[in-house]
Amino acid sequence: MGSLEGCAACSKILLIVFNVVFFIFGAVFLGIGIWATTDIYRPDILKIMDNPAIQNGSYVLIAIGAFIFILAFLGCCGACCENKCMLIMYFIILLIVVIIQIAAGAVVVAFNNTVQTYLRDEMSKSMEKYESADSTETYSVAWNAAQSFLQCCGIDNYTDWQDTTWATEQTPTNVDGVDITLDYPLSCCYVEDPTQVVSGETPMPDNVTACIGFGVDVPNKYMYSDGCYTTLKQYLEDNIMYVGAVALGIAFIEIMGLILSCCVYRGLKKAEEVI
Fold it and tell me: What family is it from (predicted)?
């Protein structure tokens, strides 16, 4: 301690500060992941993607948060203790992370259409497992929650349900004393407060008869005509600036971590040579 001078000493302080910020990012990811995993009621909306890796997004957040925690701790300790071994480990791990992020981003951009097709296929597979609006089965709960909360119906639009197993095997639904075969689930019907889904409640449609087409043309204001894939995509596009800002912030911290750790390491080597 105290062996660093000039730029190296300044780099040491900055490295500690940047890793504290990095540590906070890790805490946020970890907290959100734990909350999503342990919350009393979770609609598991991501299960409309019939893929375990996508469904377990909360566990991915926990893993990312824990990893950032460890990496930030390594960087802080390496700087505070002026430990060259820790600094080398920190630099190598962080460099690998940056390379993986760049590669992942390049793959998503290069295979954007393939990724979109893949996500549609996953949603289509889970739709085939849908049972009913009141079912407690995982995929049914996911689709009902997704359609109510996101105010959408099907993948691209409400007609997607007409070609599913549910459409051919459904039990007729009693509406105003009449048994009716539906063209889409009742979770596609408009509700006043879709956020009820988050607290575990089942929102009641405002007008079921109009929603299913009794005396009113379909689509209409009492139903959701936009697809869930389209809605999710639009939501991401509307908030891309926020996502981009966070991504740029993390990238900036990572790059500064690489530069500062190099400066501190070189400063320690020079200090040793002087001694």
Answer: Belongs to the tetraspanin (TM4SF) family.
